[in-house]
Write a structure and sequence with these properties.
The complex is a heterodimer of chains A (about 230) and B (about 425).
Chain A (H helix, E strand, L loop, with lengths): L8 H42 L5 H13 L3 H11 L14 H26 L3 H9 L4 H31 L11 H12 L2 H30 L6
Helix pairs in contact in A: 1-2, 1-4, 1-6, 1-7, 2-4, 3-4, 4-6, 5-6, 6-8, 7-8
Chain B lengths: L3 E2 L7 E10 L9 E9 L3 E5 L6 H8 L7 E6 L2 E2 L5 H5 L2 E4 L11 H5 L1 H5 L4 H14 L4 H4 L9 H13 L5 E5 L7 H18 L2 E6 L2 H7 L2 E5 L5 E5 L1 H6 L4 H7 L3 H4 L16 E3 L4 H10 L4 E5 L5 E6 H5 L10 E2 L2 E3 L4 H11 L3 E5 L5 E6 H19 L9 H7 L4 H6 L12 H11 L1
Parallel strand pairs in B: 1-3, 4-9, 4-10, 7-8, 8-9, 12-13, 16-17
Antiparallel strand pairs in B: 2-3, 2-5, 5-6, 10-11, 13-14, 14-15, 17-18
Helix pairs in contact in B: 5-7
Classes of the chains: A mainly alpha (about 230), B alpha/beta (about 425).
């Protein structure tokens, strides 16, 4: 039987959709965990950086530099292949492929988000924080009531880009054979050799995914936006 | 120059600063050096001084946003130098420069900030917010749910005051609250705030760099030199009449005589009755009203008694021009304005008198240049009394004069008209000052 000679998207989808859908489900799961984690890491470490909290601020800075200045592929390999090796006092820890999958993209996103939030918090005009302190808020309450809601809004547009990148980075999890969307598609391709259909579908699904993610966050941004002066 | 300044009034000190000093890390000199100040209950005390005099730092030390390096702070007789700072700040309302309303909260939530922190229940907070918005003259139905950016600068300033008053603190600290507002709105807000203070009677510490604002707003003024050294601490009229030293004199500036006019409000002087007629009246009846009165003109008012035009006998001759366009436009003065404002208005409009209106814009009398001149004469008398040591002032103005060397004569010769060497002509001195203003 000759396969892959005629371009037939309809039959490709009808034959492989269940398998691809499982991959898509894993992509969504890993992305959701990673984006949620990156949000928390970004807000906490961004706050530590912006408020120059001793020790945490320096550690956060080192973390950001380490992640920003190495390829994410190397980071994934490191977690998957290097971490299990006993080196000196390090006993070696083996993480299952799913844990490495979400951890790797979350750590990456967290580092970029730390910078997004640091910039956002630092852009909060001093008078708002002064106002809060003068009214009798403590430092933590000032952060939660004033710096976080205002700075978080300022950081939102740049953090959207980070979340989009996190989602797209899950495709790299192919290298540790985590069966997310790209890995699944490549497996289908190896079986069917319907290469053109495979990558058409893969590209279209990512496009739809990223587009709806950014539309969703932009909608949120619109709802959080403060009314402008008239 | 004495570092210590204690009130010589009868009212007890609500806030007492005792030998307060602040040195910022890495600085050789104290930013605030050994400051002592008593702030009497229910008064507005103004801290005024050139930039770098440490007035804002002083204000922030009162509620310990900045911790003093040494010295003690008392609030209502209690030593609060080392109590919990956050709790202390909830007992002092604070209005900062450019207000600092939280942009992500509605007006209602902004005002409710401190009550929420104090754990009031929702119903009590709601009632209080409405009460406060009413107090500062804003309709709760219209403004409670709006965001700060939807308000004008003046409205935001009022909300800032409402927020500071939310939990009814005994003390209000204000850091240049009116500085970022256009001059016309500023004057109105100042008048409104003075009106408000007659109701709330808070102990207010108010920082400004503007001596005119200090004179207008203050029951007492502390003029601060470098490192918050108190150059003089007294009532505005005493400071203007008898500056303690050359620094104070320089700071008050050349228009001291004119500035004293800021001490008296138009409502405090006797306003002249004036014949008025509706602007819609017949020409003949206006003419008749003019003949009946001893004045040379009639003020035409609209249905709400708002002044419209000044007309005299000659204007009435021009039959072709409708009454509503005859004569001169009638500029108006709020009753809460000061004599300074009134004189300014007269000089600007080149009219010897100006119509005075109440809160609703309705006519309530006329103030003329004679009234202002009489007020100046009266002030001059009072200034003399202070000069002779009969005003209860503990200072020695003669010494201050001696410090200035050769200029001592000018002060001795013309106590009130210090701005103009020809001290005999009161009004001339004031007008000369007006040129500077």
């Amino acid at each position: 039987m000759l396969v892959g000679i005629t371009y037939d998207l309809g039959s490709y989808v009808s034959e492989n959709w269940e398998f691809l859908l499982r991959g898509l489900g894993r992509t969504l799961l890993v992305s959701a965990i990673a984006i949620g984690g990156a949000l928390v890491i970004g807000a906490v470490l961004g706050a530590a950086r912006a408020h120059r909290v001793p020790v945490i601020s320096q550690l956060a800075s080192a973390y950001v530099e380490l992640i920003r200045n190495t390829p994410i592929l190397v980071q994934i390999f490191f977690l998957y292949f290097a971490l299990p090796q006993p080196i000196g006092p390090w006993p070696g820890v083996r993480l299952d492929v799913f844990t490495v999958a979400w951890l790797a993209v979350m750590i990456w996103g967290g580092a970029f988000n730390t910078e997004n939030f640091r910039a956002g918090f630092e852009a909060v005009p001093w008078r708002f924080r002064e106002g809060a302190l003068a009214l009798g808020f403590g430092r933590v309450a000032t952060f939660l009531n004033v710096t976080l809601p205002i700075g978080g809004r300022i950081a939102l547009p740049s953090s959207i880009n980070t979340y989009i990148a996190v989602l797209k980075n899950t495709a790299l999890l192919y290298v540790i054979s985590y069966e997310e969307l790209t890995t699944s598609a490549l497996q289908v391709n190896a079986l069917t050799l319907e290469t053109a259909e495979t990558f058409t579908v893969l590209g279209a699904v990512y496009l739809a995914l990223v587009w709806s993610l950014s539309a969703g966050i932009r909608g949120l941004e619109g709802r959080l936006a403060l009314p402008e002066s008239r | 120059m004495t570092a210590g300044a204690t009130s010589n009034g009868d009212s007890r000190a609500l806030i007492r600063l005792e030998n307060l000093s602040k040195r910022f890390p890495g600085q050789k000199q104290n930013a605030i050096d050994n400051l002592s100040l008593d702030i009497p209950e229910g008064e507005i005390v103004i801290l005024v001084g050139p930039s770098g005099s440490g007035k804002t730092t002083t204000l922030r030390m009162i509620n310990r946003l900045i911790e003093p390096t040494s010295g003690r702070i008392f609030l209502e007789g209690e030593d609060v130098t080392s109590v919990n700072g956050d709790k202390l700040r909830r007992r002092m309302g604070y209005v900062i420069q450019q207000i600092g309303l939280f942009p992500h909260m509605t007006i209602e939530t902004n005002i409710a900030t401190v009550p929420r922190m104090l754990g009031w229940d929702t119903k009590r907070i709601r009632t209080r917010v409405r009460e406060l918005l009413d107090l500062v003259g804003m309709d709760p139905e219209v403004y409670a749910k709006r965001y700060p950016k939807e308000l004008s600068g003046g409205q935001r300033q009022r909300v800032g005051v409402a927020r500071a008053l939310a939990a009814d603190p005994p003390v209000l600290l204000m850091d240049e609250p009116f500085s970022a507002i256009d001059p016309i709105t500023r004057a109105r807000l100042q008048n409104e705030f003075l009106q408000l203070q007659t109701k709330i009677r808070k102990t207010i510490v108010f920082v400004t760099h503007d001596i005119d604002e200090a004179i207008k707003m203050g029951d007492r003024i502390a003029i601060l030199d470098e490192s918050s050294h108190v150059a003089q601490y007294d009532t505005p009229s005493t400071i203007l009449a008898a500056p303690a030293n050359a620094f104070v004199e320089d700071f008050i500036g050349a228009g001291a005589s004119l500035k004293r006019l800021n001490l008296t409000h138009v409502a405090d002087v006797h306003l002249l009755d004036w014949p008025t007629m509706p602007v819609s009246a017949e020409r003949d009846s206006v003419r008749a009203a003019l003949l009946r009165s001893d004045k040379g003109s009639v003020l035409l008012v609209d249905d709400a008694r708002r002044p419209q035009r000044w007309v005299n006998a000659m204007d009435l001759e021009h039959g072709s021009i409708p009454l509503a366009e005859s004569g001169l436009e009638a500029p108006v003065m709020q009753r809460t304005a000061t004599l300074y404002d009134a004189l300014n208005e007269m000089l600007n409009s080149l009219q010897g008198a100006t119509a005075v209106v109440d809160e609703n814009g309705a006519f309530c009398g006329v103030i003329d240049i004679e009234t202002v001149a009489a007020a100046i004469r009266k002030m001059r008398e009072e200034a003399r009394l202070v000069y002779r040591g009969e005003g209860g002032s503990p200072r020695e103005p003669a010494l201050a004069g001696a410090e200035r060397g050769g200029d001592g004569d000018v002060r001795g010769g013309s106590d009130f008209g210090g701005a103009a060497p020809g001290g005999g002509d009161d009004f001339g001195a004031a007008a000369a000052g007006g040129g500077d203003a």
